[in-house]
Design goal:
Layout (H helix, E strand, L loop, with lengths): L3 E2 L1 H5 L8 E4 L9 H8 L5 E3 L23 H10 L8 E4 L7 H10 L5 E4 L2 H7 L28 H5 L5 E5 L3 H4 L17 E2 L15 H8 L6 E5 L6 H10 L6 E2 L3 H5 L17
Parallel strand pairs: 1-5, 2-3, 2-4, 4-5, 6-7, 6-8, 8-9
Length: 280
Amino acid sequence: MSQLISPTELNTKLDDPNLRILDCRSDLQDRTKSRLLYAEGHIPGAIFADLETDLSGPIIPGKTGRHPMPAEGDFETTLRHWGIETNSPVVVYDDRNSMFAVRAWWLLKWAGVTNVKVLNGGFQHWLKTGGIPETKVQLPPASQITIEVQTDWTVTADDLIDPPTDTLLLDARAVNRYSGETEPLDPKAGHIQGAWNADFSKNLMPDGLFKSRAELKARFQLSTEKSTICYCGSGVTACHNILAMVEAGFAMPRLYPGSWSEWVTDDQRPIATGLEGEML
C-alpha cells in the first residue's frame, strides 16, 4: 500500500467526516511564519501541526537535539486534541517537498495510527491541481486514543558508538554538511562515523513529487543488505528516507531521533569528515 496520496485523490475524500488532515508547513529560518502560512489559507478541514511544539518535545540545552521526540503522554494528548483515533484516515502535508510532513507521518505510525498518507507534492501541488484553500479553523471532536508506540523503531546515541557490523547508517543531510565542509545549524560539522550519505532531496523529482517506486527501490537497494538506521540534522528529514524506503517496498528502517544535533552535544562522541562508503 502506498504511503502517498495525490491531490486528486485527496479532493475526493474531503467530505469524509472521519478524515483528519494535518498542515505541517514550517519555516526553519523564521519559525513565526509557520502558523501564518496556515492562517493565510490551508486545505479545507486541515489542522495546524506545529513542528516545534506538536511534533517535537522540549529542547534541553546540552542534552537533546533541535527537535527531540515528544513524550509519549504529550503526543497522545495532542492526537486526542486533533480527534485522531488509531484507525482514523490521516493525510499530512507541508508546502512542497514533504520534509516536515514525513515527521508527522513517522510519529503517527510510531504511535500506532495505521492509515497515514503524505500528500505527494504538498500544498503547492494541491493548488496547481485546482485546490481552493480556506481560512476557517475548526477542530473535530476530541478522541480517546490510547497510543501504542513501536518501541523497536528507534535507536539511541549509545547504540551508534559501536554498532553491529550488519548495521548501515544513512545520513539524510546534503553532502556538504555530511562531509563537514559546512554546518549552518549545529555547532560542529561532520557526520557519525561509518555513515553513508543519502541526501533526502534525491527522493524527489524537480517538481517536489516523489520519484517512482522503481526509482526509489533502485536507490536504496544496496542499503537494504544490512539493518538500516536513518538520521539527519534533528530527526526530521531522516523520516523522508524512511518513507521512501517503505514506499519502495523495503522494511521500516530504524530512526536515530536525536540525530546530528544531539550527537554533537557530547564531546566524547566521535566525529568523521569527508566521504565514507557509497553515496546513495
